[in-house]
Amino acid sequence: MERRVRDSFAAQDYMTTIGAELVSVRPGAVEIRLAVRAGLLQQHRFVHAGVVSAIADSAAGYAALSLLDEGRDVLTAEFKINLLAPAQGEQLVARSRVIRSGSRLSVCASDVFAVTEGKETCVATLLGTIAHK
Amino acid sequence: MERRVRDSFAAQDYMTTIGAELVSVRPGAVEIRLAVRAGLLQQHRFVHAGVVSAIADSAAGYAALSLLDEGRDVLTAEFKINLLAPAQGEQLVARSRVIRSGSRLSVCASDVFAVTEGKETCVATLLGTIAHK
Amino acid sequence: MERRVRDSFAAQDYMTTIGAELVSVRPGAVEIRLAVRAGLLQQHRFVHAGVVSAIADSAAGYAALSLLDEGRDVLTAEFKINLLAPAQGEQLVARSRVIRSGSRLSVCASDVFAVTEGKETCVATLLGTIAHK
Amino acid sequence: MERRVRDSFAAQDYMTTIGAELVSVRPGAVEIRLAVRAGLLQQHRFVHAGVVSAIADSAAGYAALSLLDEGRDVLTAEFKINLLAPAQGEQLVARSRVIRSGSRLSVCASDVFAVTEGKETCVATLLGTIAHK
User: Could you give the angle at the alpha carbon of C128 between the alpha carbons of C125 and C133, nearest 5°?
Assistant: First the structure.
């Protein structure tokens, strides 16, 4: 299971572009980490909502995938994200969980934390629907 | 008004990282364009949902900003995006509109289209809330 | 097609409870109307967000159903609604449209208008995902 | 604090109409309970998504209010709800929590459970933004 998730993550060029790393994969729970750097910022020097969304969404999708049978795949149907605080710090960490894994859809949530000197602040929370293929 | 939006957009390093361009700014309506390229893709070779979200969200935020007085700024409070079709083609175009511009919040929508040989397909639609500062 | 939608609507006890009426059904577009009355209000004497959501969601679901083959049915997977203005007036009208009708999911939008002396004000907008059965 | 929430809840005619009861109010967490009955159902004999949304939204709003100073009030700006399972059983219970209480906005979540013979099943989860007045 972890191999499938890791192979799929490695095939996401965009995760490489932004420097995101897949930290851990457990059944129904995935962690993605990202070093904050200049090329990812918006006009207030916080990490762009699109980057925050990208790691939150990827973590949600892989949490869903981690509970599916071999040979299945996932595609995000939709998500909603609330941005709770400026995404600034040394790193961002996205942690996801599966709320419901159905036959055709999974509902997943992710929280994104900004990390500075080991201290975590929740900067965003996502609730999304992942379609199974 | 257009200058303020263009200055803010130019200060978004992340828009430069992904190669997004601000095409047009009218009161309450902004268009952002992006050339599709390898570094922006996910595992199925479609543009990553995070990139689609990024241009949709930026277009929404700048549409809100375009209706505010000089000196005000905007910050996305939350958005929801439905991914309607694979984001593949030569370019993506995000077009936004302001649904309601209140004193403290704007509600905006964006549609993202994939463009191939001049033909547009709607690949995502966003509905979000932008806080004023 | 219209008969199927009307039969299903008539089987929704809750629509009767709140006094909602199915005004029109066209392929991919449904209109539901509701007379504002005391039992539907919240603490500021506006129509409760739950009632506004109910007619917006029902209109979205029936718009999706109107495009499906005989024998199919629909179930709301999720929706997001922005409340734009106080829901007050003589009547509320929800109008929906199908944004994408896929094989297993439809994406639909609804707008809800408050009507006073023939004048309409948009009080809410919904974007949702409808699962097909 | 609890009195303010209870007074406001009592002023919501619609909560009376559907038979919802405010079970408990703690700082940042509210529980609302509803007896399932015929007038609240949709065409499959499950509780209508609008009713599920109503108690989830009310619980979220009052959780936000419970953390504000005397004299402040709340208004839902938007919410997103995922319907996870058919809302059927003897009762529905909505439990909310405040994710972030800011100066002008609160972000809250609610879960709705269907209860049958003391056994709870999560049937919906809501993530929303509450504006302060």
Answer: 145
Give chain C positions within 8 Å (CB) of D43.
8-9, 11-12
* Residues facing A126 on adjacent strands: A81, A110
- pLDDT, tens digit, for every residue of C82-110? 999 999 999 999 999 999 999 999 999 99
Kindly state whether C104 is in contact with chain A, defined as any CB-CB distance less than 8 angstroms.
yes
DSSP A21-53: EEEEEETTEEEEEEE--GGGB-TTSSBPHHHHH
pLDDT > 90? residue B120:
yes
Q: How far is D119 from chain C (nearest CA, A)?
A: 23
Distance CA C128, CA B14 (A): 29
Burial B85-98 (b: 16+ CB within 10 A, else e): eebbbeebbbbbeb
Find the CB nearest D127 among A80, A85, A100.
Answer: A80
Note the ipTM here. Answer: 0.96
Structural contact between residues C34 and C89, judged by C-beta atoms closer than 8 angstroms: no
- Contact assignment for A99 to D125 by CB distance below 8 Å: yes
D44 touching A (Cβ < 8 Å): no
Dist CA D17 CA D118 (whole Å):
25
- What's this model's pTM, rounded to 2 decimal places? 0.97
- Measured between CB atoms, does B81 come within 8 Å of chain A? yes
Q: What does the alpha-carbon distance between residue B44 and residue B64 come to, in Å, rounded to a whole number?
A: 33
3-state secondary structure (DSSP) of residue C66: helix
**C133 in contact with A, Cβ within 8 Å:** no
- Nearest-CA residue of chain C relative to B83? C107
Q: What is the pLDDT of residue A1?
A: 87
